[in-house]
Every structure is written in structure tokens, then in C-alpha cells.
Amino acid sequence: MATYQAIQLRVREQHGFLPKTCWIAHILSDYGLTRGMAPNRADPRQRVAPCPPNKRRAIEQVCRELGRIPD
User: Full-prediction pTM beyond 0.70?
Assistant: First the structure.
């Protein structure tokens, strides 16, 4: 299974930007693929740094290529 670091490197190679790990976690949580909310999260109703809509497609594409999310 691809790590967050592997996803970051592939996104940088293919799309020219380095995604934050919290962006990757946001996408994976939308697919139900995280362990749950972090225990130190300040506000359980909102994310501090959600994935920007203009970056989401590239990160999802790489996650699919690496087998982290279904096609």
C-alpha cells in the first residue's frame, strides 16, 4: 500500500506540486479509508486545511494509480 510520502512524490512528479498530507487524508477520509478523526483535532466539525478543489483531481488520480482508492 502506498504511503502518504509515495503519493506526495508521485503528485510532484506528475503534476508539479507537493500536496500536504492533510489534503491526502481529507481525500482518503471521503472514501472511508482513514482510521478516523485525529484525537488532537481542535474542532471535529471542520478541517483546518481541507484539500483545495483545484488540487483534488490530481491527488485522486495518483491515489487510484497507486491503489489507495478504487477506480
Answer: yes
